[in-house]
Amino acid sequence: MLELEEALQQLSGLLENTLLENGVNEVLAKYINLSVNLLVVILLVIGINYLFKNFIITAIKAFTNKTKTTFDDYLVQTRFPFYIGQIIPMVLIYYVIPVILSDFPAAEEIFIFLFDIYIIILGVWIIRSVMRTLKNYLRTLESFKDKPVESYTQVVMIIVWIFALILIFAEITGKEIINFIISLGAASAVILLVFKDTILGFVASIQVSVNDIVRIGDWITFSKFGADGTVTEINLATVKVQNFDNTFTTIPTYSLISDSFQNWRGMQESPGRRIKRAVYIKQNSVKFLNDAELNKLKKIKLVSSYIQNRQEEINKYNTEEAIDKGLQINGRNQTNLGIFRKYIDTYLNNHSAVHKELYVIVRHLAPTPNGIPIEILCFSRDKRWANFEYITADIFDHIIAAVPFFKLQLFESPSGDDISTYLREREEK
After folding, report:
1. Is 0.85 surpassed by the pTM of this model?
2. Which of 165, 252, 283, 422: CA 20 to 30 A from 95?
3. What is the pLDDT of residues 90-119, one digit of tens each?
4. Mind listing the pLDDT tens digit for each residue in 10-56?
5. How many of the other CB atoms lie within 10 Å of CB of 92?
6. Ramachandran sector of residue 19 (left: φ over 0; alpha: ψ -120 to 50; beta: rest)
7. What percent of the chain is helix, strand and coil (3-state, nearest 5)?
């Protein structure tokens, strides 16, 4: 190593000695020698960079294209070879420049200072390239596709940048690293305040991942932030959601822990998607049915056998109890609403798009000023949104159209036309 330094000193001073021998002023000879040496070093660095960029990096790209793994491809995309390639010129500069500047102590000190800072930054760039490569590679693996990998890579980079800044400030101030870290203790409150959101996001990212609250690809609804769509990205600060209108909404990561939102993953993983909707029946259209009306409803295939069997049970009960059927309210009777509910239940159980292994329920809810709600609760086999809406519409189209066949009426608030028709009919009478 000493022999190399001596050789460099002799080589760097060759021009200066030649100029002095030819009677050139000593100061001028030094500056000319310095200028030429710096020019030579700059040309060497440019040449090495050119060689590395046009030959070595090209060879590396050709090699990575032939390998089966994609990890090395991502290394090339994140410019990892370019950053590594800068190490060779840096080594050259590290050994040559101090020798060239040996007669200029102030310039040598400035160079060493700038060189140390650049090496720190270069180290950060190399680590950042590796972390980006790791993030992109893990996203290609099935087991990591829905994990917030970016949050963890961001945490690593924050830690790396903090250490890099500590090293840079230590270089600037001239303090030992340990002493500089100790001096930062007094400013810890300020640091915590500055990085409050980052710390909250980091803690939230861990909780989201460990508790499996949200994954990339989940469909979530977060009314507070106007988000209703698919989670496309989870990082340290925000969760990115692509809404159904292809707009994007960003949500603070810690809001997933502190606020309430709806995650539709359970529906997506279940065998069916829930249909829950009600039709409102006018209460004054509900009535007992006589034999003639029952015989007419028996023509409806889906409830024909039900009406027959049910009526036999009712007649048997009324006969055994000696019920006076002179008044229809006495004893047991079938109602048009009861048969209608049975019709809906049978219709749903025969519908090809309704999942039979999940709940199929048709139920009465408490009467309201808008009528009697008959709620339908079932699950469609197809969970895709467009198909689900089509199936739901198809079911309720049929149910609404079937209501008049049972002498029932749907409740609907009167419109202006209804009021005009009523007044006109009243005047005609």
Report:
1. no
2. 165
3. 777 777 777 666 667 777 777 778 788 888
4. 555 555 556 555 655 565 666 666 676 677 777 777 777 777 766 66
5. 14
6. alpha
7. 65, 10, 25
> Three-state SS for 337?
helix
How far is the first Cα of the chain from the last one, in angstroms, to the nearest whole number? 121
pLDDT above 70 for 186: no
Three-state DSSP at 251 gives strand
Q: Which tokens belong to 229?
A: 């769509």
* Mean pLDDT over each residue of the chain, to the nearest integer: 80
Residues 6+ apart with CB under 8 A from 239: 214, 231, 233, 250, 251, 252, 253, 256
Query: Is 9:101 a contact under the CB 8 Å cutoff?
Result: no
Rounded distance between C-alpha atoms, residue 298 and residue 344, angstroms? 15
CB 270, CB 264: distance < 8 Å: no
Nearest to 54 by CA among 27, 78, 85: 85
Amino acid at 70: T
- Which string of b and e fits 394-417 if b means at least 16 CB within 10 Å? ebeeebeebbeebbbbebeeeeee
- Report d(CA 229, CA 250) in Å as an integer: 11
214, 220 in Cβ contact below 8 A? Answer: yes
Give the pLDDT confidence score for residue 25 in this predicted structure: 58
d(CA 276, CA 379): 8
Strands, sheet with 372-380, edge to edge from the N-terminal-most edge strand: 273-281, 372-380, 361-364
Q: Which residue has the tokens 């065998």?
A: 271
Residue type, 373: P
The domain spans of the chain are: 2-140, 172-262, 273-418
Cα dihedral across residues 100, 102, 106, 112: positive or negative:
positive
